[in-house]
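Slide 14.
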Amino acid sequence: MGVDATIGMLQIARAHDTGAPLTTGLAQSLPFSDAAFDCLSDITVVQHIPYEVQSKALQEMVRVLKPGGRMILMEVICGKDPHIGKDSHVFPREPGDWISEVERCGASLIEWFGQEFLLADHLFVRLAQTLFGRNGHLVKQVQSTSYHSSSRESSVAHRVYWQLRRITVPFSVWAEPAVARICPAYLATHGIFVFRKAL
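Slide 15: predicted structure.
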């Protein structure tokens, strides 16, 4: 069973003919009865819900699980970098906050781990931010994928920045398995959390 708040996304899912039943619904008011599922997964959903509604969405997810059922969450974690996930449409939490929010709803953590370290790319982006100033006008222009400028300096910096990211991203993906083994989980951009609903 798949749920999305928008008909357009459900139409895209139907076009891929997964065979799974699909329905419209909001995470904070799921259209299912209590204890309807053995397992559910939430891949980067709750992080897009404002903080004041996130706990209601997590309560709903636990509500529709059978006792002993499993819940898998993959959400943005802040880690040590306060600038990750600060877009207006992303509402991240520290790993401990995700865990305590779900545990307050009646599920206990089985395990969690970091996902998507992209270490070389993150180091390159941090270097660019250091060189140009984290909040500087130029770094925002350079990072913008839709940036057009008559300034020769900005235009060259923009091209160089994105050419280098075309190297750092694939290299980061290639190195990801080794990085995930040696880096602490909180350095990842996402956390994957597995919970069990109380019996």
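Speaker note: The helical segments are 7-15, 51-63, 95-104, 119-132, 137-143, 152-182.
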